[in-house]
Amino acid sequence: MYRGHTVGVIVPAYNEESHIGEVLATIPSFVDRIYAVDDQSTDDTWSVIQEYTTASERVTNDEASNVEAGSPPEAPPSIADGGQIGDTEIVPIRHEENQGAGGALRTGYVRGREDGMDIVVTIDADGQMDPEQLPSLLDPIVEDVADYTKGNRLADPKSRREMPPFRLFGNWLLTQLTKIASGYWTLQDPQNGYTAISQEALAAVDVESLPDDHEYPNDLLVRLNIAGMRIADVSMPAVYDDEESTIEYERFVPITSVTLLQGFLRRMYSQLSNDYRDPVAIGYATGTASFVGAVAVAIDTGSTSLEGDGSSSGLLRATIAFVASGILFLSAMGIDAVKNAENGVYR
């Protein structure tokens, strides 16, 4: 227990036999429950989890059955007995089929919610996250400053310098797109997997509907904003070792782009449903209409110019429409940032 709050930690793992044992061993003793979720690894990750659990000081029987692929049950069970070190209970869970990074988190979130954990934390099994930083994520929630906290590697100059240029640019670009989609304009490093969520926030979002793959953080941020939850970015360094990323960029980029667009549209629809005069949604809608109109006029002007019948009036109309769309988009973004200013904080 941490400052009067029960804490559950999800450790999702896929082919992390070299790191998961150390990660489990270094999780702070104030954590009440660890959900070690093996997403049908093809290496010895599950064996390491079992060995670690068996080596615990006291073994407790945990109901055993399999977690089927797809949406998890109300209380996702494990297929091994649980173990306990001191006051920390270890709950090993193994998927029958690989469900992706989001699927593993989804299983842990549902289990933590059903177990009544006050705060549920996510720590990746690749050893990139320092467990000693955990209080920094918990404090804003305990102090009722935020409902959801996440690590931010971009706030640390050393971490930025150590990050490969391509990865840094990709992170920056994804940050900007996620800001627009989610409405959390102060956030950075949206794909950071070191997070904590309050019981109230977990109950307010439909975690069973989280995407299966690495786009789940972006989708979750949109859901949190729609639910009116506060988030906090917590500056912390990254730990880079010999781990290999499981992200397949040829799939990640298009899928995440679609997820962000769907999330943005869902958020705009929610805002219009609450207030049909919402200036943010109206600004984005009219800006889009103006942009589409500008493109149509530009295409028409270009085609008539090729036929020798073009005039400067068409080009002028297209230019005006482009400028108007830019002004409308920027205005909508500015209003959105002001409206959501209190929902995003730095630590």
Automatic annotation (TrEMBL):
Residue ranges of domain Glycosyltransferase 2-like in the record: 9-202
Residue ranges of the TM segments: 281-299, 319-338
Keywords of this entry: Membrane, Transferase, Transmembrane, Transmembrane helix
Entries under CDD domains matching the protein: DPM_DPG-synthase_like
SUPFAM superfamilies, alphabetized: Nucleotide-diphospho-sugar transferases
Residue ranges, annotated region (Disordered): 57-84
PANTHER family per record: SLR5056 PROTEIN, UNDECAPRENYL-PHOSPHATE 4-DEOXY-4-FORMAMIDO-L-ARABINOSE TRANSFERASE-RELATED
Protein name per its UniProtKB record: Glycosyl transferase
Source organism of the structure: Natronococcus occultus SP4
Organism phylogeny: Archaea, Methanobacteriati, Methanobacteriota, Stenosarchaea group, Halobacteria
